[in-house]
Amino acid sequence: MQRSEAWPRPHPGEGASAAQAGGAAPPTRATEQRFQEPSLYTIKAVFILDNDGRRLLAKYYDNTFPSMKEQMVFEKNVFNKTSRTESEIAFLGGMTIVYRSSIDIFLYVVGSSSENELMLMSVLACLFESLSHILRKNVEKRWLLENMDGAFLVLDETVDGGVILESDPQQVIQKVNFRTDDSGLTEQSVAQVLQSAKEQIKWSLLK
Question: Is the pTM of the predicted complex or chain greater than 0.85?
Fold first, then answer.
């Protein structure tokens, strides 16, 4: 298939004379696409904090914050900037952050400063609605800690390696149910996966 030219072709001899005159050749289509084509890797991080700013769940998808210490400092700064405001969007350190609170937790989605805010908000909404289903409408710290495996499944079905896989919560829920069914679990038991095995861990985290 022939690619359409972004610029009109020069008449015979025109290109040579332009080169001799020192004129710059017009940019090619490939050059334009290299500057204009958006990256698939739109999400830098997703994390959930409790109402004291402590991490409950987090995934980072690039090397902006390569160490755990740097991640924790960033999360604390984000929490301090957002926990007492009514806004849903914040800008910090050259990044765009969208967030939502529910009872005693804060859910954050982080992208670059040039990222489309509506795209980030669609991911945030998808994560929240999917978690609400998995946690039986109880999007709060206690239920999240009891169902951490389900929360990670939701996140993995929504974002993979910084790439947005899905923004429709119904699709995410179906995929999560399918994966848990393959493991011998029913839809009704999604919210109770490994619950008994995690009792000791849960209580240690709540202390």
Answer: no
Residue 98's nearest CA partner among 88, 85, 113 is 88
Three-state secondary structure readout of the chain:
CCCCCCCCCCCCCHHHHHHHCCCCCCCCHHHHHHHHCCCCECCCEEEEEECCCCEEEEEECCCCCCCHHHHHHHHHHHHHHHCCCCCCEEEECCEEEEEEEECCEEEEEEEECCCCHHHHHHHHHHHHHHHHHHCCCCCCHHHHHHCHHHHHHHHHHHEECCEECCCCHHHHHHHHHHHHHHCCCCHHHHHHCCCHHHHHHHHHHHC
Q: How far apart are the two ends of the chain, measured CA to CA in Å?
A: 64
pLDDT band at 99 (very low <50, low <70, confident <90, very high): very high
User: pLDDT tens digits for 55-74?
Assistant: 999 999 999 999 999 999 99
| Cross-strand partners of 159 | 164
Average pLDDT, the chain: 78
Beta-bridge mates of residue 47 = 58, 108
Residue 181 has pLDDT above 70, yes or no: no
Rounded to whole angstroms, what are the CA distances from 147 to 64, 139, 196? 29, 11, 11
In one letter, which amino acid is 6? Answer: A
Interval 85-98 mean pLDDT:
93
Note the pLDDT of residue 112.
92
